[in-house]
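Figure S7 source data.
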Amino acid sequence: MTGPTMHPPSGDALSAIKAAAGADWTDDAALIAPSLTDWRGSYTGATPLLLLPRDTATVVAIVRAAAAHRVALVPQGGNTGLVGGGIPPADGSAVLLSTRRMNNIRRVDAAGQLLVADAGVVLADVHAAAAAHGLAFPLSLGAKGSATIGGLAATNAGGVQVLRHGTMRALVGGLEAVLPDGSVLNQLHGLVKDNSGLDLKQLLIGSEGTLGIITALALKLVPAPRHRAIGWAGVDRPQRALALLARLRLLSGGQVESFELMPADGLALVEQHLGLRPPLAAAHRWQCLVELAGPMPLDDLLAEGLADADDAVIAQSEAQGQALWRLREELPLAERRDGPAVHHDIAVPVADMPDFAEAATVRVETLFPGARVLAFGHLGDGNLHFNVRAPADGAAEWIAAHREAVSALVHELVVAAGGSISAEHGIGVLKRADLARLGDPARLAAMHTIKAALDPQDIMNPGKLYQAVTV
Ligand code: FAD
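Tokens for the predicted flavin-adenine dinucleotide complex:
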């Protein structure tokens, strides 16, 4: 096994790639700088060149030039990824390819309930375009104003509606991508049925830019629900939150769109750093945000479903509903403002998550005195963001000293519980060592074989996702 063996690109190689990009590139360090650090500020890279192609043909020309000179390409969309996958290595050995100018919505097929768009289209713009046709794209997350559909597909993003609609894997009907040899995989048709071989789009989804550059997507739409009911409930333990969800699912016949769990100390951070107050009078240890969506009014049903909570409120207006959502969406920002943490994005079987979260919290806080676990998120998907906040005094030093050991422990507990060390953010740089250490050997071997077959020169985002690749 060898790691990436890239060197900074030669002058000839850079000239060839610039020529392939036409006018769509910059080597101005000041213009490149904002793309070199990730959203959390955890990774900073370097690159001699930022490519800004506007169409698939230009991406093809760039990839061919990069392949001819064996230059690594790092695709980047909105740069909201949380595992360092879109940041080039610090040695300047890779060229950054941003999709931000590939931002055309090509068409909305209302009858087929499909939206076909360039990979650089921002999620919020997809929402707006679908809404104009009485339709909805049922995937949303806190970064919707910046995250691109190409990045969402490349990381198989989830978000707050997975419970009902699934992750990007379930929501991509078709895909166009430029493979490492410059050929174009054209699977944009969005066929509902296609049994003529392997479903290659699923290889690209979740591949984090390591198998090719996604240039366009056909996204599956659903009818925009005519009614929404949004509520907030307080309980003392996560087991009771899960019981509320089970009851709501039965009562509503599957109309639960979102079910998010937050601890009282996380909401206290939102109040402290953003001035937003939770709606319940008491600081219940666990609080849930629930949304039902469907063709008929749902408020009464939601109230009935939340009757077993210790306290609950139902939003009485669109504005109140949005205010409840803001509390949840701003939690990551409030946590970031409060100080550093070791972040984990974990999944275990849904029914096991409440017990797992409680037991893992005790284990981590006992073994690392002063650390405070903040576990929140998508309880109904068996996925919580299990973040371990540093003690207030000497936080940066604590993180530097304990990050690896904390993550190793959390990930070992997750794997022992039959779970995943990455529920939705991906592997990137952050988790590749733990994936190599704890992942299923047969799955990892098959992944390496596929990577080596499709990208024998290892030019697509080397050093991400895979710990090391034979080339
Ligand atoms: P980038 O960050 O630019 O890139 C991410 C990865 O995709 C990189 O490996 C990059 O190389 C690759 N990539 C990007 N574009 C392409 C392309 N066209 N072709 C091939 N590879 C490409 N995620 C969730 O799943 N659920 C959440 O609830 C959630 N909430 C979030 C909340 C906040 C506040 C933030 C900041 C992030 C959140 N995320 C969440 C993270 C999520 O992974 C990213 O928001 C999104 O999926 C990445 O899209 P992007 O366009 O920003 O991609």
